[in-house]
Design goal:
This protein is an alpha/beta fold. Helix 3 packs antiparallel against helix 4, helix 5 packs across helix 6 and helix 6 crosses helix 7. The strands form 3 sheets. The chain has a 4-stranded mixed sheet with strand order 1-2-5-6. The longest helix is centred in the first third of the chain and has 23 residues. Helix content is about 45%, strand content about 15%. The protein folds into 2 domains: about 90 residues, Methane Monooxygenase Hydroxylase, Chain G, domain 1 (Up-down Bundle); about 150 residues, no CATH class.
């Protein structure tokens, strides 16, 4: 019978983390072989702990050529897919305006050729994100992060094209993601009390090209983005005045 909470409790109670512990947890796989839809933060917390244990077990079964290796890897994938579905429903923003502003707020590039436009965006980004509750504090390093985006991150796997050029592969993450707010906005939030980012959120670095494992690509900055931002901030200011 599937009982992931019981599995997590068992895993927590068994120490030290050695071969005997791993073998014992492998004998309990039936309790986590069925993945139900995650519908609450409590279930999400349990699912994350199950995934962490399976990640550890998958390394153990692979290194020891265990006959349970395929099963453990299959189960880890099942749990991570359900965790990803929950985090997308719960934490990822769907509003195109939110996504556009957030991408501009984390990017290293910004409009420079028209000073009035640059200054206008500089003054509008933080108020917008604050109103949408998309800024938070990273408790690990004290930096300000932007929430609500989801990006694929670089893997250690590379593919070759027909010309022999290497291309880094990018993969999805199951957990919620956070991205550092660009330095040009930090002075506007230094006195703002922000909540900590949700538990289990992973801070992701940006890279302009093929970066290290775990880095996402820097958002592109097309001219059309500037036009879109102007319209977004016009609507935002109108709604604030109406309120």
């Amino acid at each position: 019978m599937s009982d992931p909470a019981a599995f997590v409790a068992l895993a927590k109670s068994v120490e030290p983390r050695d071969k005997a512990r791993n073998d014992f947890l492998l004998s309990q796989l039936d309790t986590i072989d069925v993945v139900a839809k995650i519908e609450s933060e409590e279930e999400y917390s349990v699912a994350r702990k199950v995934s962490e244990e399976l990640c550890s077990l998958s390394c153990y079964t692979f290194n020891h050529q265990s006959p349970l290796n395929d099963r453990v890897w299959r189960m880890e994938g099942m749990w991570n897919r359900e965790i990803a579905r929950y985090t997308k429903r719960t934490y990822d923003r769907k509003d195109p305006d939110d996504i556009c502003v957030a991408n501009y707020a984390i990017g290293t590039k910004h409009f420079l050729n028209v000073n009035t436009q640059r200054d206008y965006y500089l003054s509008e980004v933080v108020p917008y994100l604050l109103s949408r509750e998309m800024l938070a504090n990273d408790p690990d390093d004290g930096n300000i992060v932007v929430l609500g985006l989801r990006k694929k991150v670089g893997d250690n796997v590379y593919s070759l094209d027909r010309r022999g050029n290497q291309h880094q592969q990018y993969v999805s993450m199951a957990c919620p993601q956070a991205f550092y707010l660009a330095d040009r906005y930090l002075s506007q939030v230094k006195d703002v009390v922000l909540p900590d980012m949700p538990e289990g959120t992973r801070t992701v670095y940006l890279s302009s090209g093929s970066g290290g494992k775990g880095s996402a690509k820097t958002p592109a900055l097309a001219r059309s983005v500037g036009n879109q931002l102007t319209l977004i901030f016009q609507r935002f200011n109108q709604s604030q005045q109406a309120a």
